[in-house]
Amino acid sequence: xxxxxxxxxxxxxxxxxxxxxxxxxxxxxxxxxxxxxxxxxxxxxxxxxxxxxxxxxxxxxxxxxxxxxxxxxxxxxxxxxxxxxxxxxxxxxxxxxxxxxxxxxxxxxxxxxxxxxxxxxxxxxxxxxxxxxxxxxxxxxxxxxxxxxxxxxxxxxxxxxxxxxxxxxxxxxxxxxxxxxxxxxxxxxxxxxxxxxxxxxxxxxxxxxxxxxxxxxxxxxxxxxxxxxxxxxxxxxxxxxxxxxxxxxxxxxxxxxxxxxxxxxxxxxxxxxxxxxxxxxxxxxxxxxxxxxxxxxxxxxxxxxxxxxxxxxxxxxxxxxxxxxxxxxxxxxxxxxxxxxxxxxxxxxxxxxxxxxxxxxxxxxxxxxxxxxxxxxxxxxxxxxxxxxxxxxxxxxxxxxxxxxxxxxxxxxxxxxxxxxxxxxxxxxxxxxxxxxxx
Length: 439
Known about the structure:
Blueprint: H1 13-26, E1 35-43, E2 46-57, E3 60-70, E4 75-79, E5 81-84, E6 88-91, E7 109-113, E8 122-123, H2 148-157, H3 161-166, H4 176-184, H5 186-194, H6 196-202, H7 206-215, H8 219-234, H9 239-244, H10 250-259, H11 264-276, H12 284-287, H13 292-328, E9 334-337, E10 340-344, H14 348-358, H15 367-372, E11 376-383, E12 392-397, E13 403-407, H16 416-438
Parallel strand pairs: 1-8
Antiparallel strand pairs: 1-2, 2-3, 3-4, 4-7, 5-6, 9-10, 10-11, 11-12, 12-13
Helix pairs in contact: 7-8, 11-13
């Protein structure tokens, strides 16, 4: 670095006044947290950006230089400031008497990497850069970004950046891909000018702008395609497509999606249906049908029909197994005693009804599967006067011969009378019956 710490000059009085004025307008004047501003200056005939930390305490206003960035250097000079990835910037105020102890990094000016100390703060004198002949036509005074030096470095290589700033497309003024195309293609410059309002409002990707121009497609249509590509690469739920479409065919695949205006999720559903129906996806008519919407709807309908039939058969088989297990352990039921009756669930439908009436999860969460596998049994506790009305539900373990859980409405604890009946009357009775059956 050709600059030394001695080259750094104090904050000019008029700059300090500008910062103080901006700070008073933007914040509570006596706000205690640290704020950042920056200003442009000249050191050794080169433009620099100086960052200033501001703080208020006891109705007094303080400011200090904390970083100096140079136009053509990758390093900057910092003072009494430290950067942490999780907490951001920490400034020491020992020199100003705001803290009693000096922090370890408060040791005067030091050298640091430029990229870590860009505080993205308001620049109070952007027009200062126009005093340099090489930036006279840069339109930097209209540039609302905070990293002024980055923009001017780009401008030095691509003067066309000034056009984007004046068209109020400042978010694109530092895109080298876009600027390179603008520099070489006069027709593209005209196209950008004609579409400037839509680009400004919608904030399209750079890739969207370049591809829309290249393919002579609408910006909105191209944006959807670009979003699909990004979405596809980031999401795990498209593993089926990623396994089916080889990476070498990605460009052709996305061209097919774009030309037919197909959403990725729709294609994913279509592919899933085709695989379930065991269609030959090596055939182009199945892989990339010409009228995708028509065939998407047909395949989804065929899938739903086939799935419903399969689910019906599975459900029918589940009911048969459930009924068989219920009959096997029917002997564990208890007749009316102490005002209560305990009956075993006879079907998955009874579990669903029990759960819906009592507002708990016995009708869901695979309790029917545990029942048919004889991992646990579900019994219903009833009042003998209302034997058909759901009251209390219990789950019994065939492995430990214990009650796993027992709940009433909204998973509430049953009354002491019910608990007493289950523990002292039914459980000993049921275990004794079960032991006799096993013997």
